[in-house]
Amino acid sequence: EVQLQASGGGLVQPGGSLRLSCAASGFTFANYAMKWFRQDPGNDLERVATINSDGTWSNYVDSVEGRFTISRDNAKTTLYLQMNSLQPEDWAVYYCALNSIRGQGTEVTVSS
After folding, report:
1. Burial category of 42 from C-beta neighbours within 10 Å (exposed 0-12, middle 13-18, buried 19 and up)
2. Is the pLDDT of residue 6 over 90?
């Protein structure tokens, strides 16, 4: 059974940073591209970032380009999202995903 558990969310002031982690199990992590999504109340789910299976390629939604960095540690079967220069519009629940399978999310609150 695929399990994806995100953690690392919390309250941060505008301009601050957070690092999200996603512990993956139940599949061969190193064989799959992975994604981070986010969703705030009233809005559709938005893909934030994608990384290929060996971490050599990544892609971001325009609104986070240059501020967020997706990475992975295949030995630890863990996905990461480093978020810098956070803004109120980044406030959302963040999920990691394997194709269409999303795990439990972690909430990021950006507020002064």
Report:
1. exposed
2. yes
